[in-house]
Amino acid sequence: MHIELSKDKRYYSIGEIAKAFNVNASLIRFWDSEFDILKPKKNAKGNRMFTPEDVTNLQLIYHLVKERGFTLEGAKTHLKEGQKQTLDKFEIIRKLETIRTQLSNIKNEL
User: Fold this and answer.
1) Prediction pTM value
2) pLDDT tens for each residue of 1-50
3) Cα–Cα distance for residue pair 1/15, rounded to 1 Å
4) Do you know which PANTHER family this protein is assigned to (predicted)?
5) Sign of the CA dihedral running 81, 18, 51, 31
6) Shortest CA distance to 38 belongs to which of 60, 8, 21, 70?
């Protein structure tokens, strides 16, 4: 699960986020209420607008809960105890996945 962040875009709607993660918007709202590291802005209508930092944190939450099978409490504890270390490992995993995809594409072109 990797979402490309646009350098020009400052905010992402909950619909964009849900579509990118292939989950319901209600799950994103639930995670927003459960995880303190998510701090989306709200527009005049009350709609959540996620920053690129929020998207990175959502990727990390998705990785812990959906890919690694953490419970919500386990993910919260993991994030609080070693957020910097967890984020560093997560970034390494994402970069390696990108490299693997690029190598696979090169292989398919041969």
Assistant:
1) 0.69
2) 556 666 678 899 999 999 999 999 999 999 999 999 999 999 899 999 99
3) 17
4) BLL5018 PROTEIN (PTHR30204:SF15), REDOX-CYCLING DRUG-SENSING TRANSCRIPTIONAL ACTIVATOR SOXR (PTHR30204)
5) negative
6) 60
Burial of 13 (0-12, 13-18, 19+ CB in 10 A): middle
Q: What CA–CA distance (Å, rounded) separates 105 from 13?
A: 31
Rg (CA), the chain: 15
Hey, what are 16's tokens? 């964009």
For 40-95, write each residue's pLDDT tens digit.
999 899 999 999 989 989 998 998 999 999 999 999 888 887 666 666 777 777 78
